Amino acid sequence: MAMSRLTRVPKLTFAQAALGVAVAAAAIGGQSTAHAETLGSGTQQYAAAHADHPETNVQAKAKISAAQVLALAKAQVGTSEDAAGGGTKFQKWYMNSPRALETVKRDGGSRQEYLNAAWCSMFVSWVGAHTGARSMVGWDAYTVEHARWFAKNHRWGQAPKPGAVVFFSWSGSKSLDDIQHVGFVVKDNHNGTISTIEGNTGNGTVAQRVRPTSQVVGYGYPNYTG
């Protein structure tokens, strides 16, 4: 089973883990109850979504709604990893994406190692790409860098909104450096919890979850049309 956080450790392989949740570039640390995500196989929307770069186009408002993104995410519920903790369409897509070349250069390791790496952030990225919302949702295999991208583009906050990308730390830390897992907000339950759709959670599946907001580091806000 894949672990929950893909961490940035340049010049180390993805298989090399440090104490706790820190792991090397394509490995994702964390708990069996939540994992990091990867993007899935290419489609026409994916090709169109790669026309621009998310680092500079997060403010571009594509005609994509939160409801569309959540519908595609929900349609993936039940998708599961193999016995080696990988083999999902999300991981295969990410491994073959142009972004994988960039993140390997940044973090170390090799593209091939994404196939069995924790895939929660890759799942989020896949959904964004396959709805044509990649420039708003971002794409990364490392949860911390995915969150930093939202913060850098002034799309970061503490209010749960449907379709927001939610980043978790099981310790309750509010530091981006401590992020271990990521998913999509479905709704605020107004009782100290949120409903989510997450990849690489539980036994390595896409599932709907209810999470305490005390474990939320923050939220990334795609610039949806509605």
Automatic annotation (TrEMBL):
Signal peptide segment: 1-36
Domain Peptidase C51 stretches: 95-221
Pfam families documented for this protein: CHAP
Record InterPro entries: CHAP_dom
Domain of life (superkingdom): Bacteria
Sorted UniProt keywords: Signal
Name of the protein described by the UniProt record: CHAP domain-containing protein
Organism the protein comes from: Nonomuraea guangzhouensis
